[in-house]
Design brief:
heterotrimer; A alpha/beta (290); B alpha/beta (292); C alpha/beta (122); B: 292 residues; alpha/beta; Rossmann fold; Alpha-Beta Plaits; 2 domains; 9-stranded mixed β-sheet; two-stranded antiparallel ribbon; elongated; C: 122 residues; Nucleotidyltransferase, domain 5; 6-stranded mixed β-sheet; 6 strands; 24% helix
Chain lengths: 290, 292, 122
């Protein structure tokens, strides 16, 4: 079973929910539970779970190398490049790495064979354990623009096509390509939000994404829950999405979070609630609610 | 025109809240242009209530499409595609999965029989609006669409072109979270990156990555710590880090649950809680000006 | 000598000059001596990234020897520099006036034209 935790809005508590849920469930679950941190631009789950990361793997893309001695400055590569990463001036080719998407087109079109390719690291994958919980994360190299290849490589590495274990995927905020990549192939989408106009606005975007692209069974967690929950509850009712859990707005919990402490470690009563959340998710999957 | 970008690394630290309040403080004395570069989840409009003047379609999505009549099923497209976008079914029919296609068009160039066409599709829209604080550029990427870095560039470049031509004093950009393509697009060419963070393990971790990213593009940075009294130890560590790494300190905002509650009023903090927040943001604005 | 001027609008010699290079709506290509000119839509305007690079490439391919615009980004600058194109910064006004200012040598020079080619490998 693959559960993706997404939010639309950043800072609502995806990682908090993912880490606490995974940690709590790992003790009780039959089979293995995994936390896979797919927020490769800023992976944070490890800060709460302190996994022992014993296995590593690099993610590489092929970037062009221009051989100026063979180059006749014909400009074919410049015309082929959709990203303006190449220009030809003064009889030689200029390459702008920050714009390159590693598509390989320039190397293929060069009539002189003056462009070869070299592997460059765009990300790093790591896996290990935190108590009963298995853990994996991907990290995007600073300066590299696209997280999608790193997320794809991470999922391929640790999430098998057919799986009987439980995989909890922590997605990045937003609703564009990295979130799509994370949601792809999941069995359930858990949306974490906060009871504010920002939270509601961005929740709508990611709910829309799910409806349009994947139609996964889905549910909502209201974090920083309090007097304005109605904002979210009304929307949830309209969309026929269950509110599966509320985490109260509490300075005490915020302080624990700030120090990297799991909420269930300072409020043991929350353990039952996270188990309840997990049971709720399983129910939804079994019922096939969308 | 000076360009000020507000980023965070970590989502939810208060970028939009800070941007709106700075706009409220700066607008009386300066001509501002505003941009919301968080095109996946554009929130600045919730606080600034812009009136849309012009809507433009965003057509970044080039995708390759195989013409089945011309295709000879040689498989060359599958060989060259670096993005796993080519599908072959049991009947040996090749198609391109537009969800994976990144529009590099390598297959278009390599197809021996020219059987691949290029389609443009609309993946979002962007707006030029008026707001109480100045002309505002913002956008919405349709859910699930790719290319958010490109739309960010569109929004920012149009804001920049407009502001330069109008001889505005400042361009204030509400940035996206993270450090990937939307953020690198937003960082391009700005004069300062104001990093809004919080004194938490995750906030500090992501603040460092945001600073490294800005540094990689040789952009000056300034730090704002939101919820500053939530964790004294981490706050002090962050302040030390800022000093060691040449970040200016623009301001501290204490943990205040009222901020969350008053957001329903849909106004900058300097309007909804003026006694507490006008001084905080006035001083922050002056600090930013000093750094520039 | 062929000169490229970035323009805000297309109004012939009365076109207001643009201070933006990569995404200006139009370029004027004008012969400094004969004053014969053409105005083209800037093909880089719709570029999703690297507009400055694409605009510089285009201007170079059109045979311009001088570019007059606003500030140039570093990538556009490197393309023009490699192509040995001079770049000047105007302070506003219409195309005709900007050209005159260039000929009167009062514009800020961002990149000196006709830099001597280095001997050796290109």
């Amino acid at each position: 079973m693959v559960i993706t935790i997404a939010s639309g809005k950043g800072g609502t508590g995806k990682t908090t929910v993912a880490a606490n849920l995974a940690h709590t469930v790992a003790h009780k679950n039959a089979g293995t539970t995994w936390l896979v941190d797919c927020d490769v631009e800023a992976p944070n789950a490890a800060l709460f779970l302190n996994p022992d990361l014993v296995e590593k793997k690099t993610v590489e893309r092929q970037l062009p190398v221009i051989h100026q001695d063979k180059c006749t400055a014909c400009g074919e590569c410049v015309r082929a490049c959709e990203y303006n990463a190449l220009a030809v001036a003064g009889g030689k080719v200029l390459f702008f790495k920050e714009l390159c998407h590693a598509c390989g087109s320039c190397a293929l079109v060069c009539p002189q064979g003056a462009i070869t390719e070299k592997a460059e690291q765009v990300g790093m994958l790591e896996q290990g354990s935190s108590g009963d919980l298995r853990f994996a994360q991907g990290t995007l190299e600073v300066g590299f623009s696209s997280p999608t290849p790193v997320i794809r490589a991470l999922k391929k590495w640790v999430v098998p096509e057919k799986n009987t274990n439980t995989f909890i995927l922590d997605a990045s905020p937003g609703a564009s390509c990295p979130v799509v990549e994370t949601l792809r192939g999941s069995d359930f989408a858990l949306f974490v939000t906060e009871p504010t106009p920002f939270g509601l606005h961005d929740l709508k975007v990611v709910v829309e994404l799910n409806k349009k692209e994947f139609k996964l069974p889905a549910g909502i967690v209201i974090n920083k829950s309090g007097k304005n929950d109605r904002l979210i509850e009304d929307f949830a009712a309209e969309q026929e999405l269950p509110v599966l859990m509320r985490v109260p707005l509490s300075r005490h919990l915020a302080e624990a979070y700030s120090s990297g402490i799991l909420l269930v470690d300072v409020e043991p009563a929350l353990k039952e609630e996270f188990l309840g959340l997990f049971a709720g998710i399983q129910d939804c999957i079994n019922k096939g609610t969308v | 025109m000076k360009e000020i970008l507000i980023i965070s690394g970590k989502g939810g630290t208060g970028k939009t809240t800070v941007t709106a309040s700075l706009a409220d403080i700066a607008a009386p004395a300066h001509q501002l242009v505003l941009a919301d570069a968080d095109v996946d989840a554009a929130n600045l409009e919730i606080l600034l209530a812009p009136e849309i003047q012009k809507v433009s379609p965003f057509m970044a999505g080039k995708v390759a499409v195989i013409d089945q009549d011309a295709c000879i099923a040689c498989g060359r497209c599958e060989e060259v595609c670096r993005f796993d976008a080519v599908r072959r079914d049991a009947k040996n029919t090749y198609t391109i999965d537009s969800a994976y296609c990144e529009g590099c068009l390598s297959c278009v160039h390599q197809c021996p029989v020219d059987a691949i066409d290029v389609d443009l599709h609309q993946s979002g829209e962007w707006y030029r609006s008026t707001s109480p604080y100045g002309t505002m550029f913002h956008a919405n990427l349709y859910p699930g669409e790719e290319n958010s870095g490109k739309l960010v560039t569109q929004v920012k470049e149009d804001a920049r072109a407009f502001g330069t031509q109008a001889q505005a004093d400042f361009l204030l950009i509400d940035g996206p979270p993270g450090i990937g393509c939307p953020v690198t697009a937003a960082l391009n060419g700005v004069d300062i990156a104001v990093i809004v963070s919080e004194p938490t393990v995750t906030g500090f971790h992501d603040m460092r990555r945001a600073r490294e990213t800005a540094d990689f593009f040789q952009i000056a940075t300034s730090l704002v710590i939101n919820k500053s009294d939530l964790n004294k130890d981490i706050r002090e560590e962050m302040l030390r880090y800022a000093e060691t790494n040449g970040m200016a300190l623009a301001g501290l905002i204490p943990y205040d649950e009222e901020i969350l509650h008053t957001q329903v009023l849909r106004q900058p903090l300097t309007r909804s809680l003026p006694d507490a927040y006008q001084p905080v943001f006035s001083s922050m604005w002056l600090d930013i000006l000093a750094t520039l | 000598m062929k000169i490229a001027i970035s323009l805000e609008e297309d109004k012939g010699l009365d076109s207001p000059a643009s201070s933006v290079f990569g995404r200006c709506p139009f370029f004027m290509l004008i012969d400094a001596d004969s004053k014969k000119y053409e105005i083209h839509e800037n093909p880089a305007r719709q570029a999703t990234g690297g507009a400055g690079i694409q605009a510089a490439q285009w201007v170079l391919d059109q045979g311009a020897e001088i570019v007059i615009s606003g500030n140039l980004g570093p990538k556009a600058f490197s393309v023009l520099s490699a192509g040995q194109i001079g770049a000047y910064q105007h302070t506003g006004g219409i195309a005709e006036a900007v050209l005159q200012a260039f000929q009167d040598d009062v514009l800020t020079c961002l990149l000196a034209p006709n830099v001597d080619a280095h001997s050796g490998t290109a």
